[in-house]
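Here is the promised in-class demo. Please do not try to memorize the tokens; focus on the logic of going from shape to residues.
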């Protein structure tokens, strides 16, 4: 096929994957960046397949940039991600011709690799302002999205030509004896289900909050449904066709399984984060002791396993959103258990009382002061503000599992109540969270 026809087909194939629009929306919402895209990149061409453009960058699907003016040209050669928080402060890219030509200060791009190992293009995002992008969680999210695009691109190619496409699928996954008709029917049914679901949900999406509730919907449904399909196919193939897989084929399946598990954890935390911003805020006057006792019941097994001690001191009442504050206390307690010191039983102390506190414009107002302390590994105080950032984790994920969203959820809940939160800590001595809620 002529190269131009090849690229035109690639753009059409990407356009047949509805989930990509939601992926670009999630990228912009979670990073704060104004432009995200899937680009087809070859030795001599850079062409947009699909975009989200909130900064009037000016590109639309099918538009091209001169390949040598892009950083994606370099990514095509080394096939490694490139992440820039702030061009002006980046030693490698501050004098690079691409940011100067296109006027961006933050940039992230990861390669999209087809399931046969060939390079397709990049999933990228830019913004004229600096952004905090250099975290393992952010990179993991982009890589998982790139894997998801690769998986669906592969499925679209199968559906276009049943006989040759199924043969390609067998070659890529090293499957020899899958019944052609059964596999084709499964793929066609997947597309029918996804199409029907998108049509049924279109009307309800219009009624949701355009930014926050749609984000929750994407996380809870549109992103999780393809994951369920991936896990279903992997399960069927692993049970019935495992002996027919080559070592490389088994490696592909392991990669899909691991990616799906990481994506599921990320989606669950993103969903919890988005739910804290929905306008359904029903305040109740409630004693915090009741909320704490509910959380302790939820964490009963973890507390027993760690032999943890909970010290409930002075308690008071305040007007709160009960389910959100259960989530807040649960997240802080879970962190204290997770980051406890080896060989030392965790001790978590919580208290709350009504105090006079200087508020806006120097006025003294009544506040509910909630204080939660632990005797865990603590943290360097210079990170006191950064620990509340989305996807921020101060410890290696190899030692402590997590997505870096838990404390971002805590801060969002406090903000929903019109309050403030601060964190203080010392390495190997513990951490303390001080929450101040205005009393009406």
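The designed amino acids, position by position:
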């Amino acid at each position: 096929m002529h190269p131009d026809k090849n690229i035109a087909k690639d753009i059409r194939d990407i356009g047949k994957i509805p989930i990509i629009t939601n992926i670009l929306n999630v990228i912009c919402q979670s990073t704060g960046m104004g432009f995200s895209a899937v680009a087809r990149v070859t030795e001599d061409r850079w062409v947009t397949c699909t975009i989200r453009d909130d900064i009037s960058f000016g590109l639309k699907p099918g538009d091209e940039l001169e390949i040598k003016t892009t950083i994606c040209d370099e990514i095509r050669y080394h096939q490694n991600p490139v992440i820039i928080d702030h061009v002006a402060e980046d030693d490698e890219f501050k004098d690079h011709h691409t940011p100067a030509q296109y006027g961006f200060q933050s940039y992230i791009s990861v390669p999209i690799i087809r399931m046969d190992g060939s390079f397709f293009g990049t999933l990228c995002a830019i913004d004229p302002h600096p952004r905090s992008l250099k975290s393992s969680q952010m990179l993991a999210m982009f890589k998982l999205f790139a894997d998801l695009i690769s998986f669906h691109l592969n499925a679209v190619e199968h559906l276009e030509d049943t006989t040759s496409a199924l043969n390609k699928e067998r070659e890529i996954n090293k499957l020899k004896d899958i019944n052609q008709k059964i596999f084709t029917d499964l793929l066609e049914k997947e597309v029918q289900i996804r199409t029907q679901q998108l049509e049924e949900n279109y009307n309800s999406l219009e009624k949701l909050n355009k930014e926050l509730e749609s984000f929750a919907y994407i996380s809870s449904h549109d992103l999780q449904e393809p994951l369920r399909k991936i896990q279903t196919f992997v399960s069927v193939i692993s049970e019935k066709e495992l002996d027919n897989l080559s070592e490389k084929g088994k490696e592909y399946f392991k990669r899909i399984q691991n990616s799906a598990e990481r994506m599921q954890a990320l989606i669950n935390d993103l969903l919890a984060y988005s739910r804290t911003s929905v306008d359904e805020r029903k305040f109740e006057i409630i004693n915090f002791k009741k909320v704490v006792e509910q959380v302790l019941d939820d964490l009963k097994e973890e507390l027993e396993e760690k032999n943890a001690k909970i010290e409930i001191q002075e308690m008071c009442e305040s007007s709160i959103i009960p389910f959100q504050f259960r989530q807040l206390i649960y997240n802080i307690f879970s962190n204290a258990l997770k980051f406890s010191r080896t060989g030392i039983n965790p001790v978590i102390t919580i208290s709350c009382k009504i105090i006079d506190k200087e508020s806006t414009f120097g006025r003294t107002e009544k506040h509910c002061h909630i204080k939660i302390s632990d005797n865990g590994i603590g943290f360097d105080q210079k990170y006191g503000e950064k620990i509340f950032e989305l996807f921020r984790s101060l410890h290696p994920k190899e030692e402590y599992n997590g997505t870096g969203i838990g404390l971002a959820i805590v801060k969002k809940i406090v903000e929903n109540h019109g309050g403030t939160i601060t964190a203080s800590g010392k390495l190997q001595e513990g951490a303390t969270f001080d929450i101040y809620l205005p009393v009406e």
